[in-house]
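Morning, I've got a small favour to ask if you have a moment. I owe you a coffee for this, so here goes:

…
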Amino acid sequence: MIPTVALLAYAAAMATIGPTLLRRACWPERFPRAGIAAWQALSASTVAAVLLAGLSAAMPVMPFTINLAEFLHTCTMLLREQYATPAGALATTGGLGLVVVVSSRITWCVTRTWIRVARARRAQRLRLAILAHHDSATGILVLDHAEAAAYCLPGRGGQVVVTTGALARLGVDELEAVLAHEQAHLQGRHDLVVATAMTLRDAFRFVPLFAAAADQVPRLVEMVADDVATQSADRGCLAHALLNLAGAPAPVGLLGAGGSTAAARVQRLVAPSRPFGMVHRLMALAGMTVVLALPVVLMAAPAFAVATKAYCPVSVTA
């Protein structure tokens, strides 16, 4: 029962304290890729801890052996022993129920999200097929609209859409910077990263971690695209372009250069912070590794503790 309590306590701490600490940190903006990975590690670790807690409640001591026959025999004995008492039966049923409910909820929300996204993209493609035209010089879709906007349509044959209003406001260098930003979204499949965070938030709206991740991950994704764009474009040009596009968020389910995060990103481009050094990168990697590994360690500890004990191994008859 100790591993179950420890795993649930760990999940609660990650779901409440974790997002508070990560939101206060300044290093994710300096290295947004690591920031995204940190939010993903916290989310994955929390979900894993809850699922492993359910399994631990169903079978408090998992057998530790490489012999499949002995493993199955020991599992059967442990389950019979667990169901021998009302408290044990309740713990086992509750643990398995927790695993089923959490897994089913995530599966349902993933399916619902992708159906909704697929429908939205299909509708957007139909609208663009009617209202937009392909610019052979730049390879983009030009939408006749007075509002300055630029966004990308991920998926098979991903495309970049720019309105005529944006083309009128952006210079040649600024347009190239915006296109590099949108191509970074398409090549990095940032839509999958954002969709994962949104799905967990929709599945468990009462969990502070998932709500914070759904808020922070899209912002960090835009910073990653900015960093990729500045490898081939001038930071000042990109900053000026973002100011021109700040008032035009991308359609629902799509990623765009403008939107509510543009002002903060412009400040980041104009006054860049010092680079994220190798030592800091290794520290971030080590921290994420610990966060991901800890639930497994908490679950496996009792198995290692009883590894030398005999549980009536299967006899081999000549």
